[in-house]
Specification:
Elements (H helix, E strand, L loop, with lengths): L1 E6 L2 E4 L4 E9 L6 E7 L6 E7 L5 E3 L7 E6 L4 E6 L8 E8 L5 E4 L3 E6 L1
Parallel strand pairs: 2-11
Antiparallel strand pairs: 1-3, 3-8, 4-5, 4-9, 5-6, 7-8, 9-10, 9-11
């Protein structure tokens, strides 16, 4: 089992920044990568970004490329999502996920709300 706890969400004005954190515990070595996903009201959950635990390789959705940065601290078993130049359409519940070698989520965090006002 892997436990994931997100933090750092909140309310911010358009153009502002937030940093989300995801602390992982348990059998973290069983995860291949970590990802961030989001789900807006009335929308399906969508991929945002992912980072490989060992190599640090990152990949982003086109909608956030150039604005968001995912990073990891292996010593702390923590993954971050730095979000800059936020837009109202970034408003969503953001979820952290532990990904397997096929890049499919095995475990989910409880989510943290991000609201961007115009």
């Amino acid at each position: 089992q892997v436990q994931l706890v997100e933090s750092g969400g909140g309310l911010v004005q358009a153009g502002g920044s937030l940093r989300l954190s995801c602390a992982a515990s348990g059998r973290t070595f069983s995860s291949y990568a970590m990802g961030w996903f989001r789900q807006g009201s009335g929308k399906e959950r969508e991929f945002v970004a992912r980072v490989n635990w060992s190599t640090g390789f990152t990949y982003y959705a086109d909608s956030v490329k150039g604005r968001f940065t995912i990073s990891r601290d292996n010593a702390k078993n923590t993954v971050y999502l730095q979000m800059n130049s936020l837009k109202p359409e970034d408003t969503a519940v953001y979820y952290c996920a532990a990904l397997n070698s096929r890049l499919k989520p095995n475990y989910w965090g409880q989510g943290t709300q991000v609201t961007v006002s115009s």
